[in-house]
Inverse folding.
């Protein structure tokens, strides 16, 4: 069943991994969280496990995703941040109830509000976990746009992608959102171009 869905592209930065769930925005866009269940899967592998997700919550998640994308793109281009997108990011950030907790091994985990509530009140509030998870993602986006973390926001050099990504390389000269996909494709295109025109047009 899972094989029917596009795979995730997971990066090391939560907010831009999340915006990467829609890829090739300027080409044949690939939606990697097409169903509520796939959003649950993505949250689980991203350290924000929730039990369930509704269509409405998936809608909130996609709205946040596109808002982060818009804000990060503007920030990377040194342009004014779009006010409506900033509002969405702020709303999601302030409306969650996640808490960072430290493990005995010194690792940070996120405890979503519903996980605590569920012990007392089984039922109704159970599905609020998605909002809590989105708050963590929104706060991560705020961190990187506001320059609170070491790195540089940049836009992928692939013309069909143009994803905003967070470059933490030492030289800050990364060109592609992902070496295995966009970077590789670019390399192949250059290789074919160098092979000579006799081969005919290249896709
Ligand atoms: Zn890219």
């Amino acid at each position: 069943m899972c094989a029917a869905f596009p795979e995730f592209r997971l990066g090391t930065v939560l907010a831009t991994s999340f915006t990467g769930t829609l890829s090739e925005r300027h080409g044949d866009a690939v939606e990697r969280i097409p169903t509520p269940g796939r959003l649950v899967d993505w949250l689980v592998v991203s350290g924000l496990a929730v039990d369930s997700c509704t269509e409405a919550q998936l809608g909130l998640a996609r709205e946040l995703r596109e808002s982060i994308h818009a804000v990060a793109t503007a920030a990377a281009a040194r342009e004014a941040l779009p006010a409506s997108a900033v509002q969405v990011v702020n709303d999601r950030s302030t409306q969650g109830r996640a808490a960072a907790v430290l493990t005995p091994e010194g690792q940070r985990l996120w405890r979503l509000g519903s996980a605590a509530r569920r012990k007392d009140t089984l039922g109704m509030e159970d599905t609020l976990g998605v909002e809590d998870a989105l708050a963590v993602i929104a706060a991560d986006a705020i961190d990187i746009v506001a320059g609170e973390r070491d790195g540089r926001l940049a836009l992928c050099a692939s013309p069909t992608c143009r994803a905003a990504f967070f470059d933490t390389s030492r030289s800050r000269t990364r060109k592609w959102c992902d070496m295995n996909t966009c970077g590789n494709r670019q390399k192949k295109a250059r290789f074919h171009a160098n092979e000579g025109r006799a081969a005919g047009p290249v896709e």
Summary: The chain has a mean pLDDT of 88.
